[in-house]
Here is the input.
Amino acid sequence: MDLVMGIIFIVFSYFLGSIPTAYLVGKVTKGIDIRQEGSGNVGSTNALRVIGIKGALFVGVVDFLKGFIPACVGLRLFGSDIALVSMAAAVGGHIFPVWLKFRGGKGAATGIGAVIGYTPFFAIPIMAVWGVVFLLTGYVSLATILATVVAALLPIFAGQSLFCILIYVGFCSVVLFKHRKNIHRLIKGEEHKFNIKKRSNRGLK
Here is the structure.
């Protein structure tokens, strides 16, 4: 019975992760299809670009919770293995949402939410790396990429299980793959920078 409930929870985690937050916020607040605007990505960065800071913050928080909740609940109710698989299912749901013909976001916010939910003591180094890199460079993509790499390395030094390390490295690999165009633009010096003050003022109008 526990295994059956665990499998049901894994399926639930996928459908939770597949909620297309940015798409829904774009439709409700602006009447737009975010897939047709900006970069076309269904995530918080593109939401910031085309919806504004309030909508982007909401999208980011919800996408984070889509990974955080399966990790916390799964760990408490079913143990580490089911929790880790549920985390992977949630991230998979975000990237391949059934509601949008399996074309979703890049998985970073949901993946980081899952990592912090499962290993909360990783929150400070992950968020510190993201914040410092973003403030110093203005590149959301670079901050996300480096924070994700840190999240993949931390379980190795923290003595986590091999399964945990594999899941975290898997998260990192998927996020890096989904950011491959951003990486290419960063190398060429063509990646878009965000002006925090300008975006904040526009988003608060």
